[in-house]
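Handoff note, outgoing to incoming analyst
You'll be picking up this chain. Sequence as last confirmed:
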Amino acid sequence: MLVVSATGAVVGDLNTRRSHIVGMLPEGGIATIEASMPQVEAQQYSTQPRALTRGRGAITTEFDHYGGVSANLVQKILAAHEAENAAKVPI
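Most recent structure output, in case you need it:
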């Protein structure tokens, strides 16, 4: 939930984070934005609504579904995994 005057900034920011806006309900000066977002983006997003709304926004999250990953992200994930495994010292 956030103040209606900040919805443009929040929706714009959500769009940069691979989000899909499902709906928006403005009611009495307060807006609720419903969006789906990859979990990795949501984990990094927790403080952003407060920053964009000057402390007058909050986020709630719940897991909804697994989704596909784009090819460029698959390559980044695999490279990070391989680097992590290479850094481990065998016992």
